[in-house]
Amino acid sequence: MRSNEGRGLGRMDAEAQRLLSSRAATRSDRSNRSPRSKDSDSSAASNSKGVKDPLKMIWRRGFTRLVLVSAILWILLILFALLFHLWSCHSSIIFLSALCKKDSKVLVMLDTMGLTPQPQHRCPIPLADEPDTIVIPEITPDTIPKTLSYIMEDEGGNNSEKSQPLFGGHQSWLQRENSFKLNTTTKVHCGFIKNGGAEMDAIDVQYAQKCKFVVASGIFDGYDTPHQPSNLSVRSKKLFCFLMVVDEVSLDFIKQNVTVREGSDGGKWVGIWRLVTLHHPPYDEPRRNGKVPKILTHRLFPHARYSIWIDGKMELIVDPLLMLERYLWRGKHTFAIACHKHHKSIYEEADAIKRRKRYARPLIDLHMKIYRYEGMEMWSLKKGTISDVPEGAVIIREHTTMTNLFSCLWFNEVNLFTPRDQLSFGYVVHRLEGAFKFFMFPNCEYNSLFILHRHIREHSSVIEWVKSLDEFKGNQSGLKETRGGLGLWTPYPGDLRSVELPSVKRTSPAG
């Protein structure tokens, strides 16, 4: 019995040990199961729901990688193109710089984002410390000429032309030649021929009579809106008249885009600027109209003793009284203008104008041939001037008879030939044979006087794209101006056929 009981207990112990070892083996098997086994299990489970095609999975992964790689390559290509564009625009290699469009939308966008390298073209201006301490000097005495008067009747032209007087008059070649001869008493063409256009409102004429110190600017054909000067002293605000000359198109445009208030006398104001409207613009070309207030400031505002001209797209950031002290009174000058950043010769400037299509190429060439025939040489150190080409966006003047005469002669060249006034400035200086003294200050100071804003819209004229004089024949295309530049169509007294323009070496990437 006992033996049977012992055997029964032995069997129970053996069975218990078997169960325990079986459970331990099961746990060990579960813990040691490989990922592959798990994948097999999951695959089996998924197969129960639906089998996935391995080729489809590989294709999807490959397509995703292809899209990502393509996107990265496109981004790199675009970055490379932008970097090349920027590099070419600032390259000293003429071929590459010629490929760059300075006014391209890409460059404008990058410039707006602050991604274009800015040239170091500004420098400190040695200004006086305090406007209130500046002593205004006595008027510079006139020497030669002592008296200057103006031709007011349009005497030239044929009968049909006489029916419509020209603002600049029909100046003959002989009158032009005699105008460069200095005499004690001088009478010259100087715009504002009777019934030739550019009339001011009576209230503006009356207002300008009290203006002895003038900051003048101009906007034509709705290119800009007035930019308010900054850093003005209380003294300058009281001393200066800020006069913005506009045509009727620009006046309407300004009214639509900025607040224009009306003064007690009926005058129109935008901030500190008084808008002076010129009715009946004298020229077909807006750029030529803009030369009237720019060059003939003394004719528009004859009571002004001093004037500072700034282009309409500029925001003046220097007190005008400090400018007069720096550029006129300190060196006892009566006329100051900045030198051009790149060009010293008018022939270099003419070449750049043609490249940039800023006026008809054949008319630029004809203009330069006349100057070449009349003895205008390339600029050199022998001339005794810093440059023949100015930056004309800022002009600082005391209205003496000599500076007024120079302005008249300069304007007459713009009236007779092309509206590119930088081409004729140096020529008039040359013709006066050293009698006209002026201060041409560094270009880096010029760029420190203002903030340059972009035009709201760019000027565009079909005449800028003309490539040959044949396109003007018969004037059927409407390209030929009817009221300006007539000196290019009037038979010239000299033989220009043998005149060759000097070769120009492009020393800068200036467009």
TrEMBL record:
<feature type="transmembrane region" description="Helical">
    <location>
        <begin position="66"/>
        <end position="87"/>
    </location>
</feature>
<feature type="domain" description="TOD1/MUCI70 glycosyltransferase-like">
    <location>
        <begin position="148"/>
        <end position="455"/>
    </location>
</feature>
<keyword id="KW-0812">Transmembrane</keyword>
<dbReference type="InterPro" id="IPR048354">
    <property type="entry name" value="TOD1_MUCI70_glycTrfase_dom"/>
</dbReference>
<dbReference type="Pfam" id="PF04765">
    <property type="entry name" value="TOD1_MUCI70"/>
</dbReference>
<keyword id="KW-1133">Transmembrane helix</keyword>
<protein>
    <recommendedName>
        <fullName>TOD1/MUCI70 glycosyltransferase-like domain-containing protein</fullName>
    </recommendedName>
</protein>
<feature type="region of interest" description="Disordered">
    <location>
        <begin position="21"/>
        <end position="50"/>
    </location>
</feature>
<feature type="compositionally biased region" description="Basic and acidic residues">
    <location>
        <begin position="26"/>
        <end position="41"/>
    </location>
</feature>
<keyword id="KW-0472">Membrane</keyword>
<dbReference type="InterPro" id="IPR006852">
    <property type="entry name" value="TOD1_MUCI70"/>
</dbReference>
